[in-house]
């Protein structure tokens, strides 16, 4: 059931009143937004998806990282945009009308094919389509948590799943 | 030859005069450092490896991303630490004596096994060992460049390699 639903993906379009450039208005894109200070990557994704679409979900993996410099609206800093794979636990859309014109579950093939999507959205749709057909382990960058050297703190490390046989080295 | 050399990895230890916490002093770690403003991830890695070790190299992939909050020395901000796989084109070490006590090419098995390494170093050594034995395509997060919607700008997108058959969708 969840796997079936993963052929679809909540997407939003920018409202024309936003300050986005012309060719990203009315383009399909994934929900998302800025991290709060001190917020984990996955928590930002889950929060923003809920705020924009009303869909509840759980963080599964990082799919892609974009680094962009001189990006408008990034406060004069270089910008890291991180795309996560989430598993939905609710399916009824109730979307933010300030931020979105439309919000729909969409077939991945259609999203990968349409010209009415930002290039990064098309690209990630193709990546998801690959994962959906051949296994998400092909595309997932998964998370492990480690204690930091600073007492009481933890950090999250994202990398390709390491098979059990490589986690412990003997002899 | 290069693959053989990839069983080894330039590593450095922190000088005891640095302000690192006690248990990271004298621990083996990979060379690295802070990005300059506007600098690409791979360019930072190549530059820092050269500055700390004298080794020339080329960026191949991202291996791992760490997100840490309240990290000392991160200017009160959350910290993203990105570990890259580089291919060396020179092999003679000439290391920075201000930053390192020792700098050596080290066998990956030994680096994965020693207790004298930071946890993240041990973990990435295990990941590299997996990639070295079963193919770097198992662990690599590779880069593609795209034109941004803003005229004349480009961005870099990092994700798992997408097979050719999934890049173009027909019908």
Automatic annotation (TrEMBL), chains A, B:
Coiled coil: none annotated. Residues 14-26 have a biased composition (Polar residues). The keyword Phosphoprotein does not apply. SUPFAM superfamilies: Nudix. Residues 1-39 are annotated as: Disordered. Residues 1-128 form the Nudix hydrolase domain. GO terms for molecular function: ADP-ribose diphosphatase activity; NAD binding; NADH pyrophosphatase activity. Monomer and homodimer. PANTHER family: NUCLEOSIDE DIPHOSPHATE-LINKED MOIETY X MOTIF 6, NUDIX HYDROLASE RELATED. Belongs to the Nudix hydrolase family. This is Nucleoside diphosphate-linked moiety X motif 6. It comes from Apteryx owenii (Little spotted kiwi).
């Amino acid at each position: 059931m969840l796997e079936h639903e993963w052929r679809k993906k909540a997407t939003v379009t920018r409202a024309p009143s936003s300050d986005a450039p012309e060719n990203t208005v009315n383009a399909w894109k994934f929900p998302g937004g800025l991290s709060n200070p001190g917020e984990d990557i996955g928590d930002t994704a889950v929060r923003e998806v809920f705020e924009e679409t009303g869909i509840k979900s759980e963080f599964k993996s990082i799919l892609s990282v974009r680094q962009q410099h001189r990006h408008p609206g990034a406060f004069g800093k270089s910008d890291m945009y991180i795309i996560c794979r989430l598993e939905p636990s609710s399916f009824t859309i109730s979307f933010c009308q300030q931020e979105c014109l439309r919000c729909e579950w969409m077939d991945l093939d259609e999203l990968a094919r349409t010209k009415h999507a930002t290039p990064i959205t098309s690209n990630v749709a193709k990546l998801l389509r690959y994962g959906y057909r051949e296994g998400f382990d092909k595309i997932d960058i998964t998370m492990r948590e480690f204690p930091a050297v600073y007492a009481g703190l933890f950090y999250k490390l994202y990398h390709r799943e390491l098979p059990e046989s490589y986690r412990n080295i003997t002899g």
